[in-house]
Write a structure and sequence with these properties.
The chain has about 375 residues and is an alpha/beta fold. The strands form 2 sheets. A 7-stranded parallel beta sheet has the order 3-2-1-4-5-6-7. A 6-stranded parallel beta sheet has the order 10-9-8-11-12-13, with helices on both faces. The longest helix is centred in the first third of the chain and has 14 residues. The protein is globular.
Length: about 375
């Protein structure tokens, strides 16, 4: 029996949770049963070097500024001639299944494929609370257009969390074949990578991991850290990630005189060893689909503290398996104090993290993914 032909479509492989999830999924394929092609709209990003050798890689463009312009014209003017031309030029064969692994306007390229191809989109974001998405969905004409021209024509819509599905339905409505599938996590690999020894920490250490962008809510985290320092608490906060808000956040740290308390470590290929060394993983995101870094910290066995945010609260079941705070610096600082003042809390929440992490086992997720793909 010939292998099934699968096409994955991605905007790029610039570092992020969805890109990381795709690479993990591609590494889990049986390439005797599947022939996989990965099409990148723009050939760029850290994860390009991580693509398995068995995957055929194609791309439409290498200039990301050009792609940004084309994406804008497609959203604002409905003009997609160049995108469509580039797609048809590169993709000239039939596939059994085609997957837009990040739902976006590029998802519409799937409809240029044969009518017999099963077409799937993967929703990684919260469409109501994520401002980058919600600002487009405010326009009813645009909203009605994509409901008819995209979502009604797809065979399957996959959501990485129940919160993402609920928000999608509130914005777009219900469609046939809507499934919830957590991203793939390799617990054995994660724990192995976390075991690399680092110099010991001197004080209680909180750690945050994610792109330095407004949606991650680092302003709130830095404000909470200022409250702790002003009240005389001794602590350290490590922030891992890169992004366009970096200079702004560093300026805020300098203004608050927090340079001894807060350290920006940049983007690290292996953040897990730093997560393992820290005492508490913190996340202050404004919006999440499925927070990969949060789940990875729980797999490693770290106690977690989050803000009451879509995606995050679902993972810890509204405070059952992690500590949850209101979205204010004052409330978050109070929760951080609990970990500082009560060392036993770390052991309690570390055990809860490990227990909940079993829900994200690799084998359980893989079987569900291939059931949908097939």
């Amino acid at each position: 029996m010939p292998p099934k032909k699968i096409l994955f479509l991605m905007p790029s492989l610039v570092g992020g949770g969805a890109e990381n999830a795709l690479i993990k999924l591609l590494n889990a394929f049986d390439y005797e049963k599947y022939k996989v092609t990965l099409l990148l709209v723009c050939y760029r990003g850290y994860y390009v070097s991580k693509i398995p050798k068995s995957v055929e890689v194609k791309y439409l463009f290498k200039n990301h500024k050009l792609v940004s312009i084309l994406e804008y014209l497609q959203k604002k003017r409905g003009w997609s001639l160049l995108l469509n031309w580039a797609f048809k030029r590169k993709i000239n064969e039939n596939y059994d299944t085609a997957i837009s692994f990040i739902d976006s306007n590029f998802t519409d390229l799937l409809f240029l494929l044969s009518p017999t191809t099963k077409k799937i989109t993967w929703v990684h974001s919260s469409y109501l609370t994520n401002k980058n998405y919600n600002r487009f969905h405010q326009h009813k004409k645009y909203l009605n257009k994509i409901k008819e021209s995209r979502y009604k024509k797809l065979d399957t819509i996959v959501f990485v969390s129940n919160d993402a599905k609920i928000e999608f339905i509130e914005v777009m409505g219900k469609f046939d074949n809507m499934h919830i599938l957590y991203n793939l996590f390799d617990e054995v690999d994660l724990i192995q990578k976390s075991q690399i020894t680092l110099p010991p920490k001197q004080v209680i250490t909180f750690i945050a991991v994610g792109k330095l962008a407004p949606v991650k809510g680092y302003d709130l985290l830095i404000d909470a850290a200022k409250i702790l320092k002003d009240e005389g608490f001794n602590f350290r906060l490590e922030i891992l990630g890169k992004g366009h808000q970096e200079s702004e956040l560093k300026a805020k740290v300098q203004k608050y005189e927090l340079k001894n308390e807060i350290q920006f470590l940049g983007y690290l290929e292996n953040p897990y060893t730093y997560i393992n060394r820290a005492d508490v993983f913190v996340m202050t995101s404004v919006s999440e689909g499925l927070p990969s870094a949060l789940i990875e910290a729980m797999i490693i066995g770290k106690p977690v503290l989050i803000t009451d945010t879509s995606g995050c609260r679902e993972v810890i079941e509204y405070g059952k398996y992690g500590m949850m705070s209101d979205r204010t610096p004052e409330a978050f600082a109070e929760k951080m104090k609990l970990f500082i003042d009560n060392p036993d809390l770390k052991d309690k929440y570390a055990a809860l993290s490990r227990y909940k992490a079993k829900d994200f086992s690799k084998q359980n997720t893989l079987s569900k993914i291939f059931e949908i793909i097939d």
